Amino acid sequence: MSAFLRRLASGVRVTWASSTAFATLGTATVTLLVLPLLSIAYDVLLGADLSAPDLVRTGYAAALVALASSVCAGVVGTVAADRNLGIFQEVHTRRRLDLAYWLAVAAVPALLAVLTGAAAIGAVFAFSPAHDVAVLGRVVALAPIAVVCGLLLGVGAAGIGVDLPDPYLGATVVGTFLPLLAGVIVPLSACPAWLRGLGALAPMSGTVSALDAGADVGALLARDLLVALAWAGAGLAATRHAVHRLRAGLRRDVI
């Protein structure tokens, strides 16, 4: 256990040192505050154009999905950088499943995403007309689920992308389609049946639905976590496939 904790702590220190989020004050401000708030504003304005029934709900849903997407993108970005440096290949050819590595690459993105999510959720509360503390409390309670889903989705996206010419592809797809499939702009209950079916395959659709009155919160969150675990399992399987290709001298990356 002590060796595992040492490896985990070492990995977190390396990930923190290589993070560019706090390179300058301007970078930190744009990364942690400006971009997330612009993303939420875009979702809310789009929801207004589509006559979404509750724009405050849209704002909170956008903040939760942005929290998960941010963790996912951070994990994918760290793994992609490790692949380009040869670190990922070195780690995963030595160990079949390196839990310390995955926790280490997720720790800093999760921390940064929590800071971003807190600012985003606070902004939605500040600009909402009702300033409903009960709804705010529900959103804050759902935030840890969003972080876990983002972490597991990041493992899946990183594992699938690490054997592709573009290792960032998974994060791009997640960031593009997750708000739609999770029912951020318009609740999934108001969407066509085929879109609701696709939403059931996307982590965060249950978490966003848990914002609605009368939702079966426990079942929705359990479904999200199971779906996220399935995506993480697919990513780990893809990682093993990439390792087998490396041992055979085959590579798909362009580096």
Commentary on this structure:
The chain has 255 residues and is an all-alpha fold. Helix content is 76%, strand content 0%. The protein has ten helices and no strands. The protein has helices at residues 2-18, 25-49, 55-85, 87-94, 99-127, 133-161, 169-181, 193-199, 205-209, 217-247. Helix 3 (55-85) packs parallel to helix 6. The chain is globular, with a radius of gyration of 19 Å. The protein starts with a helix and ends in an 8-residue tail after the last helix.
Structural class: mainly alpha
Distance from N terminus to C terminus (CA atoms, Å) equals: 36 Å
| Strand and helix order | HHHHHHHHHH
Any low-confidence stretches, pLDDT <50, length ≥5? none
Task: Looking at this protein, list some descriptive labels.
single chain, 255 residues, mainly alpha, 10 helices, 76% helix
Concise summary:
This protein is mostly helical and 255 residues long. Helices cover 76% and strands 0% of the residues.
Provide the fold topology.
Layout: H1 2-18, H2 25-49, H3 55-85, H4 87-94, H5 99-127, H6 133-161, H7 169-181, H8 193-199, H9 205-209, H10 217-247
Helix pairs in contact: 1-5, 2-3, 2-5, 3-5, 3-6, 3-7, 5-6, 6-7, 6-10
